[in-house]
Amino acid sequence: MKLHSLQALRAIAAWVVIVDHALQELTNNQAGNPLTHLGWTMGGIGVNLFFVISGFIMVQISWETFGRPASSANFLRRRLIRIVPLYWIATFAALAYHRVSATHGEHAGWPELIHSLAFIPFAGEDGSWAPILGQGWTLNYEMMFYAIFAVGLFLRRQIALPAVGTILGAFVFSRPLLSNPTWAYLASPLVLWFVWGMARAVLWRWGGVNEPQSLAKLTRVLEPLGDASYSTYLVHGFVLTIILRVWVLLAGPPSLWIVPVSLVIATIAGWLTHLGVEKPILRLANNFSNPS
Which of 123, 103, 99, 100 is nearest to 111 (CA)? Predict the structure, then answer.
Protein backbone atom coordinates (compact mmCIF):
# COMPACT_ATOMS: atom_id res chain seq x y z
CA MET A 1 0.00 0.00 0.00
CA LYS A 2 1.36 3.40 -0.99
CA LEU A 3 1.95 5.75 1.93
CA HIS A 4 1.15 9.32 0.91
CA SER A 5 3.08 10.86 3.80
CA LEU A 6 6.15 8.84 2.83
CA GLN A 7 6.04 10.27 -0.67
CA ALA A 8 5.76 13.72 0.86
CA LEU A 9 8.87 13.01 2.92
CA ARG A 10 10.74 12.08 -0.26
CA ALA A 11 9.83 15.46 -1.75
CA ILE A 12 10.98 17.23 1.41
CA ALA A 13 14.26 15.29 1.43
CA ALA A 14 14.93 16.35 -2.16
CA TRP A 15 14.16 19.98 -1.29
CA VAL A 16 16.53 19.91 1.66
CA VAL A 17 19.34 18.64 -0.57
CA ILE A 18 18.58 21.33 -3.17
CA VAL A 19 18.76 24.05 -0.51
CA ASP A 20 22.06 22.61 0.67
CA HIS A 21 23.60 22.82 -2.79
CA ALA A 22 22.07 26.24 -3.48
CA LEU A 23 23.65 27.57 -0.29
CA GLN A 24 26.98 26.11 -1.35
CA GLU A 25 26.62 27.87 -4.71
CA LEU A 26 25.88 31.12 -2.86
CA THR A 27 28.91 30.90 -0.55
CA ASN A 28 31.22 29.18 -3.04
CA ASN A 29 31.38 26.44 -0.39
CA GLN A 30 33.62 28.54 1.85
CA ALA A 31 34.15 26.65 5.09
CA GLY A 32 34.19 29.81 7.20
CA ASN A 33 30.75 30.95 6.11
CA PRO A 34 27.87 30.03 8.48
CA LEU A 35 25.56 29.54 5.49
CA THR A 36 27.91 26.88 4.17
CA HIS A 37 27.68 25.00 7.46
CA LEU A 38 23.91 25.37 7.39
CA GLY A 39 23.94 23.85 3.91
CA TRP A 40 26.14 20.96 4.97
CA THR A 41 23.82 20.25 7.89
CA MET A 42 20.74 20.32 5.69
CA GLY A 43 22.42 18.11 3.09
CA GLY A 44 23.25 15.55 5.75
CA ILE A 45 19.66 15.58 6.98
CA GLY A 46 18.34 15.12 3.45
CA VAL A 47 20.61 12.19 2.64
CA ASN A 48 19.92 10.50 5.97
CA LEU A 49 16.20 10.91 5.39
CA PHE A 50 16.50 9.37 1.92
CA PHE A 51 18.33 6.36 3.37
CA VAL A 52 15.79 5.88 6.18
CA ILE A 53 12.93 6.05 3.67
CA SER A 54 14.74 3.54 1.43
CA GLY A 55 15.20 1.06 4.28
CA PHE A 56 11.57 1.47 5.28
CA ILE A 57 10.21 1.04 1.76
CA MET A 58 12.32 -2.04 0.94
CA VAL A 59 10.90 -3.85 3.96
CA GLN A 60 7.37 -2.69 3.24
CA ILE A 61 7.31 -3.82 -0.39
CA SER A 62 9.00 -7.14 0.39
CA TRP A 63 7.16 -8.06 3.60
CA GLU A 64 5.16 -10.95 2.12
CA THR A 65 7.82 -12.20 -0.31
CA PHE A 66 10.72 -13.23 1.93
CA GLY A 67 11.79 -16.83 1.34
CA ARG A 68 10.03 -17.21 -2.01
CA PRO A 69 12.16 -18.60 -4.87
CA ALA A 70 11.84 -15.69 -7.27
CA SER A 71 11.74 -12.87 -4.72
CA SER A 72 15.39 -11.88 -4.95
CA ALA A 73 15.48 -11.77 -8.76
CA ASN A 74 12.20 -9.83 -8.94
CA PHE A 75 13.40 -7.37 -6.32
CA LEU A 76 16.66 -6.69 -8.15
CA ARG A 77 14.88 -6.36 -11.48
CA ARG A 78 12.51 -3.75 -10.08
CA ARG A 79 15.31 -1.84 -8.36
CA LEU A 80 17.52 -1.84 -11.45
CA ILE A 81 14.67 -0.64 -13.66
CA ARG A 82 13.86 2.08 -11.14
CA ILE A 83 17.40 3.35 -10.64
CA VAL A 84 19.69 2.52 -13.55
CA PRO A 85 18.24 3.90 -16.84
CA LEU A 86 17.67 7.47 -15.66
CA TYR A 87 20.97 7.51 -13.76
CA TRP A 88 22.89 6.36 -16.81
CA ILE A 89 21.26 9.03 -18.95
CA ALA A 90 22.07 11.68 -16.35
CA THR A 91 25.66 10.40 -16.08
CA PHE A 92 26.27 10.66 -19.83
CA ALA A 93 24.68 14.11 -19.79
CA ALA A 94 26.96 15.14 -16.91
CA LEU A 95 30.02 13.81 -18.74
CA ALA A 96 29.13 15.82 -21.83
CA TYR A 97 28.46 18.92 -19.76
CA HIS A 98 31.76 18.63 -17.88
CA ARG A 99 33.66 18.32 -21.16
CA VAL A 100 31.97 21.37 -22.67
CA SER A 101 32.09 23.58 -19.58
CA ALA A 102 35.50 22.43 -18.26
CA THR A 103 34.10 21.71 -14.81
CA HIS A 104 34.56 18.83 -12.35
CA GLY A 105 35.00 15.61 -14.26
CA GLU A 106 36.16 17.14 -17.53
CA HIS A 107 39.14 14.75 -17.60
CA ALA A 108 37.04 11.68 -16.82
CA GLY A 109 37.80 8.75 -19.11
CA TRP A 110 36.66 5.17 -19.53
CA PRO A 111 37.70 4.01 -16.01
CA GLU A 112 35.72 6.80 -14.34
CA LEU A 113 32.74 6.26 -16.63
CA ILE A 114 32.66 2.50 -16.05
CA HIS A 115 32.98 2.93 -12.28
CA SER A 116 30.20 5.53 -12.29
CA LEU A 117 27.83 3.42 -14.38
CA ALA A 118 28.55 0.34 -12.24
CA PHE A 119 27.96 2.19 -8.95
CA ILE A 120 31.53 1.48 -7.80
CA PRO A 121 33.04 4.31 -5.74
CA PHE A 122 36.41 5.64 -6.89
CA ALA A 123 38.74 8.38 -5.73
CA GLY A 124 39.05 11.23 -8.22
CA GLU A 125 42.08 13.31 -9.02
CA ASP A 126 40.96 15.92 -6.48
CA GLY A 127 40.65 13.29 -3.74
CA SER A 128 36.85 13.31 -3.77
CA TRP A 129 34.77 10.16 -4.15
CA ALA A 130 32.11 11.72 -6.35
CA PRO A 131 31.17 9.88 -9.55
CA ILE A 132 30.80 11.75 -12.83
CA LEU A 133 27.31 12.81 -11.77
CA GLY A 134 28.29 14.24 -8.39
CA GLN A 135 25.13 13.50 -6.42
CA GLY A 136 25.29 9.88 -7.59
CA TRP A 137 27.54 9.09 -4.63
CA THR A 138 24.47 8.25 -2.55
CA LEU A 139 23.36 5.71 -5.16
CA ASN A 140 26.57 3.74 -4.59
CA TYR A 141 25.35 3.12 -1.04
CA GLU A 142 21.81 2.45 -2.24
CA MET A 143 22.93 -0.23 -4.68
CA MET A 144 25.10 -1.91 -2.06
CA PHE A 145 22.10 -1.97 0.27
CA TYR A 146 19.88 -3.43 -2.45
CA ALA A 147 22.42 -6.20 -3.17
CA ILE A 148 22.60 -7.23 0.49
CA PHE A 149 18.83 -6.96 0.89
CA ALA A 150 18.31 -9.13 -2.21
CA VAL A 151 20.42 -11.88 -0.67
CA GLY A 152 18.32 -11.63 2.48
CA LEU A 153 15.17 -12.29 0.46
CA PHE A 154 16.26 -15.90 0.04
CA LEU A 155 15.60 -16.35 3.78
CA ARG A 156 12.50 -16.23 5.93
CA ARG A 157 11.67 -12.71 7.08
CA GLN A 158 12.31 -13.52 10.73
CA ILE A 159 15.89 -14.47 9.83
CA ALA A 160 16.51 -12.16 6.88
CA LEU A 161 15.84 -8.80 8.48
CA PRO A 162 18.08 -9.33 11.55
CA ALA A 163 20.73 -10.82 9.24
CA VAL A 164 20.73 -7.83 6.86
CA GLY A 165 20.89 -5.41 9.77
CA THR A 166 23.70 -7.37 11.42
CA ILE A 167 25.72 -7.56 8.19
CA LEU A 168 25.46 -3.81 7.62
CA GLY A 169 26.30 -3.06 11.24
CA ALA A 170 29.28 -5.42 11.25
CA PHE A 171 30.49 -3.93 7.97
CA VAL A 172 30.47 -0.43 9.46
CA PHE A 173 32.26 -1.48 12.64
CA SER A 174 34.91 -3.31 10.62
CA ARG A 175 35.79 -0.13 8.73
CA PRO A 176 39.09 0.51 10.58
CA LEU A 177 40.25 -2.98 9.57
CA LEU A 178 39.53 -2.58 5.85
CA SER A 179 42.62 -1.96 3.74
CA ASN A 180 40.74 -1.56 0.47
CA PRO A 181 39.74 2.13 0.19
CA THR A 182 36.58 1.36 -1.78
CA TRP A 183 35.28 -1.03 0.86
CA ALA A 184 36.30 1.39 3.60
CA TYR A 185 34.36 4.14 1.83
CA LEU A 186 31.25 1.96 1.57
CA ALA A 187 31.53 1.01 5.24
CA SER A 188 30.46 4.51 6.24
CA PRO A 189 28.18 4.88 9.27
CA LEU A 190 25.70 6.38 6.81
CA VAL A 191 24.52 2.87 5.93
CA LEU A 192 23.13 2.49 9.44
CA TRP A 193 20.32 4.81 8.38
CA PHE A 194 19.10 2.01 6.12
CA VAL A 195 18.98 -0.23 9.19
CA TRP A 196 17.05 2.40 11.09
CA GLY A 197 14.51 2.60 8.27
CA MET A 198 14.16 -1.19 8.24
CA ALA A 199 13.60 -1.21 12.00
CA ARG A 200 10.92 1.44 11.67
CA ALA A 201 9.14 -0.63 9.04
CA VAL A 202 9.20 -3.70 11.29
CA LEU A 203 7.75 -1.71 14.19
CA TRP A 204 5.13 -0.29 11.81
CA ARG A 205 4.11 -3.79 10.75
CA TRP A 206 4.19 -5.32 14.20
CA GLY A 207 2.14 -2.47 15.61
CA GLY A 208 -0.46 -2.78 12.86
CA VAL A 209 -0.13 0.93 12.21
CA ASN A 210 -2.15 2.51 9.43
CA GLU A 211 -1.50 5.90 7.92
CA PRO A 212 -3.94 8.39 9.50
CA GLN A 213 -6.43 9.59 6.89
CA SER A 214 -5.97 13.19 8.01
CA LEU A 215 -2.22 12.93 7.42
CA ALA A 216 -2.75 11.25 4.05
CA LYS A 217 -5.07 14.04 2.92
CA LEU A 218 -2.70 16.71 4.21
CA THR A 219 0.32 15.29 2.40
CA ARG A 220 -1.40 14.12 -0.78
CA VAL A 221 -0.68 17.45 -2.46
CA LEU A 222 3.06 16.68 -2.24
CA GLU A 223 2.71 13.14 -3.56
CA PRO A 224 3.40 14.01 -7.24
CA LEU A 225 6.56 15.83 -6.18
CA GLY A 226 7.56 12.84 -4.08
CA ASP A 227 7.05 10.59 -7.09
CA ALA A 228 9.37 12.94 -9.00
CA SER A 229 11.96 13.17 -6.22
CA TYR A 230 14.42 10.79 -7.91
CA SER A 231 14.37 12.84 -11.11
CA THR A 232 14.64 16.03 -9.08
CA TYR A 233 17.61 14.68 -7.19
CA LEU A 234 19.43 13.70 -10.38
CA VAL A 235 18.83 16.87 -12.41
CA HIS A 236 19.04 19.56 -9.74
CA GLY A 237 22.81 19.88 -10.07
CA PHE A 238 22.50 20.86 -13.73
CA VAL A 239 19.72 23.30 -12.91
CA LEU A 240 21.58 25.02 -10.07
CA THR A 241 24.70 25.42 -12.20
CA ILE A 242 22.73 27.03 -15.02
CA ILE A 243 20.83 29.29 -12.62
CA LEU A 244 24.07 30.49 -11.04
CA ARG A 245 25.67 31.28 -14.40
CA VAL A 246 22.62 33.13 -15.67
CA TRP A 247 22.29 35.01 -12.39
CA VAL A 248 25.92 36.17 -12.46
CA LEU A 249 25.59 37.15 -16.11
CA LEU A 250 22.42 39.19 -15.59
CA ALA A 251 22.62 40.45 -12.01
CA GLY A 252 26.17 39.96 -10.76
CA PRO A 253 27.10 38.10 -7.56
CA PRO A 254 24.18 36.02 -6.24
CA SER A 255 22.11 37.03 -3.25
CA LEU A 256 20.22 34.86 -0.81
CA TRP A 257 17.26 35.00 -3.19
CA ILE A 258 19.04 32.47 -5.37
CA VAL A 259 18.09 29.77 -2.85
CA PRO A 260 14.26 29.93 -3.21
CA VAL A 261 14.58 30.58 -6.94
CA SER A 262 16.77 27.50 -7.32
CA LEU A 263 14.37 25.44 -5.22
CA VAL A 264 11.36 26.34 -7.35
CA ILE A 265 13.06 25.93 -10.73
CA ALA A 266 14.80 22.67 -9.76
CA THR A 267 11.50 21.24 -8.50
CA ILE A 268 9.76 22.12 -11.77
CA ALA A 269 12.65 20.68 -13.79
CA GLY A 270 12.56 17.47 -11.78
CA TRP A 271 8.81 17.12 -12.20
CA LEU A 272 9.06 17.67 -15.95
CA THR A 273 11.92 15.17 -16.17
CA HIS A 274 9.81 12.67 -14.26
CA LEU A 275 6.87 13.09 -16.62
CA GLY A 276 8.81 13.38 -19.87
CA VAL A 277 11.75 11.04 -19.33
CA GLU A 278 11.53 8.87 -16.21
CA LYS A 279 7.95 7.60 -16.57
CA PRO A 280 8.28 6.67 -20.27
CA ILE A 281 11.56 4.88 -19.52
CA LEU A 282 9.95 2.96 -16.66
CA ARG A 283 7.03 1.92 -18.87
CA LEU A 284 9.36 0.81 -21.63
CA ALA A 285 11.68 -1.07 -19.28
CA ASN A 286 8.81 -2.80 -17.50
CA ASN A 287 7.22 -3.82 -20.81
CA PHE A 288 10.55 -5.14 -22.04
CA SER A 289 11.23 -7.17 -18.88
CA ASN A 290 7.61 -8.39 -18.72
CA PRO A 291 6.59 -8.84 -22.37
CA SER A 292 3.51 -10.83 -21.42
Answer: 123
